[in-house]
Amino acid sequence: MILQALTLTLQLAVTVSVILLIVGVPLAYWLAFSARRWKFFIEALVSLPIVLPPTVLGFYLLVALGPLSPLGRWWQAITGHTLAFTFAGLVIGSVLYSLPFAVQPVATSFAAVDRKLLDISALLGASRWRTFWRVVLPLGLPGVLTGFVLSFAHTLGEFGVVLMIGGNIPGATRTISILIFDQVEALDYAAANRTALLLLVLCFVLLTAVYGLRRHAAWRLWEWK
Amino acid sequence: MKKLLAWLILPSLLAPALWADEIKVAAAADLSYALKDLGAQFQQKTGNAVSFSLGASGNLYSQIQNGAPFDLFFSADAEYPRKLAAAGRLDPASLRSYAVGELVLWVPKGSPLNPQLLHMDLLLQASVQKIAIANPEHAPYGRAAMAALEHFGLKDKVAGKLVLGESVSQAAQFVQSGNAQAALIPLSLASSPAMKDTGKYWKLPDGSYPEIQQVAGIVSSSRHKQAARAFLDFVGSAQGTAVLQKYGFTIPTQK
């Protein structure tokens, strides 16, 4: 039971953090370099999930994306089932919920890149695309890595949204945080302890590895210069 | 610093004074509507306010087991209160069976399926992809639902369709929002104002699941035992039982 929940949770975390990497880096680039006046509006929108309780997101996913709404009916017509109680539903919920954790570190590290370097790169005839790959991304790599890991870790520990839209189905939506909750509620403290300890150790090892790696990566890049 | 401390301490000093006569009730989620009615009538009659914390009986059980500051516990079964009384958390003499609950098969109003005709076979229909029940781990009505599925020989056939709500309220919300197509929920929720006109149901026959005897008791550490007892008596009075009956509960004959 623990293994199934753990596998499912890891699958969810990998899926979500990869999606967020693909979506988050361009969004962070836009937030860091765009000169649009209404940029602050998007910034606020991206940061919303930090402030809002997961219940708000869970509620809207359940109702607005449920079969009572046109969007939900459209999804149901295509896939044959509702978003709630499915792995895809959890992925969508988690992507929205972890978005700021994936975008903000990247945007900050992109914004910290010395503008002179960008100007020089342009002067030397490099396109913006090439400047991004050769200057911005290498210098902002620690931020990208942080964003990736934070979104991964945040999804591992996600609870509220899953509780509201998951339906507690083994192998599909019973993530490890839900399993721990169930075990505590069933007063099975020994099992809850085993599961919680496993998650604790796993997360600690993961974060240690990443922070170690990040240091290494930053050092390597610095040496290249 | 002193100001900050005072600011932090102030609410806890004021709280008991402000809510001196408020009874805090931990109640099973199937009582959501019935107890609110009862609480309002009780307050009108005695002036004592009643506040409710609703959840699955098992969740409330573990909270009270761990010393949650409630005055009364209304469970959806008899087992949790008995265990709490044995552990010294509930006053054993106060235990009272206040209602017998019933289980219904509920579908949203727009559903093409008629539970009155199909009965439990409705759950086997292909258009029923998800069936919401309360989590049997900690909700008595969830256990009753599992027992009923077993009774009708459906347990294995619908196992892949089950979604578990934290309490009967969440199970009801899953099906009312259309995310699940059918649910096994208490009659007390199905006949509540919020659900009455949004769906149709079929009452499961007696004997298809063990009788749901619901027991309440006064929390041993309560500081408002007198008011708590008064509320318990009110629930058992003619006026109180009339409200419970309105929500589909039957009243046990012996106390």
By DSSP, the count of extended strands of chain A is 0
CATH T-level fold name of chain A: MetI-like fold
The CATH C-level class name of chain A:
Mainly Alpha
Relative strand content of chain B: 15-25%
Number of spatially distinct domains of chain A: 1
Helical region count of chain B? 11
Name of the CATH homologous superfamily of chain A: MetI-like
Q: Hey, which two chains have the biggest interface?
A: A-B, 21 and 22 residues
3D architecture notes:
The complex is a heterodimer of chains A (225) and B (255). Chain A has 225 residues and is mainly α. Chain A has a single domain (2-111, 141-224), classed as Orthogonal Bundle (MetI-like fold), CATH 1.10.3720.10. Chain A has 10 helices and no strands. In chain A, helix 6 runs antiparallel to helix 7 (128-156). The radius of gyration of chain A is 20 Å and the shape is globular. In chain A, 37% of the residues are buried. The model of chain A has no long low-confidence stretch (mean pLDDT 89). Chain B has 255 residues and is of the alpha/beta class. Chain B folds into 2 domains: 2-100 and 212-246, D-Maltodextrin-Binding Protein, domain 2 (3-Layer(aba) Sandwich), CATH 3.40.190.10; 102-203, Periplasmic binding protein-like II (D-Maltodextrin-Binding Protein, domain 2), CATH 3.40.190.10. Helix content of chain B is 40%, strand content 20%. Chain B has 11 helices and 10 strands. Chain B has helices at 2-18, 32-46, 57-65, 79-86, 115-118, 140-151, 168-176, 187-190, 193-196, 225-236, 238-246, and strands at residues 23-28, 50-55, 72-74, 96-101, 103-108, 131-134, 162-165, 182-186, 199-203, 212-218. A 5-stranded mixed sheet of chain B has the order 2-1-3-10-4, sandwiched between helices. A 5-stranded mixed sheet of chain B has the order 7-6-8-5-9. In chain B, helix 2 (32-46) runs antiparallel to helix 11. The longest helix of chain B is centred in the N-terminal third of the chain and has 17 residues, at 2-18. Chain B is globular and about 65 Å long. The termini of chain B are far apart. Chain A binds chain B through residues 62-63, 66-68, 72, 81-85, 163, 165, 167-169, 182, 184-187, and chain B through 56, 58-59, 62, 65, 129-130, 132, 135, 137-138, 162-166, 173-174, 177-180.
